[in-house]
From TrEMBL:
Belongs to the PRA-PH family. SUPFAM superfamilies: all-alpha NTP pyrophosphatases (SSF101386). Signal peptide: none annotated. InterPro entries: HisE, PRib-ATP_PPHydrolase-like. PANTHER family: HISTIDINE BIOSYNTHESIS BIFUNCTIONAL PROTEIN (PTHR42945), HISTIDINE BIOSYNTHESIS BIFUNCTIONAL PROTEIN HIS7 (PTHR42945:SF1). It comes from Consotaella salsifontis. This is Phosphoribosyl-ATP pyrophosphatase. NCBIfam families: histidine_hisI (TIGR03188), PRK00400.1-3 (NF001611), PRK00400.1-5 (NF001613).
Amino acid sequence: MSEFTLSQLESIVAARATSDDPKSYTARLSRDGIERAAKKLGEEAVETVIAALGEDRRALTGETADLFYHLLVVLRLKGVSLSDVMEELERRTAQTGLEEKASRGSSERPS
Ligand SMILES: N=c1c2ncn([C@@H]3O[C@H](COP(=O)(O)OP(=O)(O)OP(=O)(O)O)[C@@H](O)[C@H]3O)c2ncn1[C@@H]1O[C@H](COP(=O)(O)O)[C@@H](O)[C@H]1O
């Protein structure tokens, strides 16, 4: 099992985002801005969904890796850290998913 963490990838993304290396995809994507990065995130999400509906586990693994990477690029561009997200997830462990859903209030569309 790999010891590599999302936190380590977040650090790589942060360092590469401001790099002037012309070979850096992260730098190019970050320079292009949030609209393009968010669009790429959406594409990767859709590709992950398609892989999830298929039988190829390696395809799902690859698409999920693309999704995590693009999510970290978007979070960095918006100033949201992985630690912010983990804190939110940790807070949610105090209750079940359905309790958390009910606590969101009636302003959201019921489903
Ligand atoms: N994990 C990733 C990673 N996952 C996916 N990608 C890139 O995300 C892109 C996926 O987009 P597509 O499949 O749509 O391919 P594409 O058509 O080439 O993309 P676009 O031209 O539309 O942007 C590909 O170019 C992938 O190489 C990644 N690029 C970088 N990383 C990590 O970020 C580090 C720094 O990367 P650089 O900034 O490129 O040095 C790397 O060492 C990796 O650890």
